[in-house]
Specification:
Blueprint (H helix, E strand, L loop, with lengths): L1 E6 L2 E6 H30 L12 E18 L3 H11 L9 E14 L2 E8 L7 E7 L6 E2 L9 H26 L1
Antiparallel strand pairs: 1-2, 3-4, 3-6, 4-5, 6-7
Helix pairs in contact: 1-3
Length: 180
Amino acid sequence: MTFDFTFGNTHTTMELSTLIILAFVVGFFIWLICWSLCRGIRTLQGKPLNSPPSRLFWAKVTADVLDTEEDEIWHGIPEAFQAAHNLKTGASIGSHDGYMRRVQSCKVSYTYKERSYTSTIWNPVIRDGKTEIYCYKRKPALTKVYIPNQSWSKGAGIFMLFFGILMILMGVIAICGIFS
């Protein structure tokens, strides 16, 4: 199946498969522009790169931690953290008998609209036996943990803005070349 396009004095004929590939390339190009501009703007604003769940569908609740399943427990400070501390401060950590743990999952209890629910969540951030989670408003038994992604440096944010603007200019040049 072929398609005929006429732009001014130019006449173009394309096969369906070529048109589909062109549509995917244009879609990816538009997605790349939006992605780079959004990342650049969020970085320059100092916001996390990922947004929290929509308030329209998700409600933020504070949950009590009932039971945890710990993945790793360290006594003392692991060598990787010691090396990072040495690079950051220039001083080594003496004999420190700290306690670190990484919680893989936990069972939580929370209330939403005066009803109690129990759920298992993965990779939570626990502070003083409580954690903040999001529950789906229509079905409060569905939960989600939001962990913000750290934003990039200001230089990376500026680069992403310039990259997005450059991609827009390339698109405008390509469109002007097609229609002229």
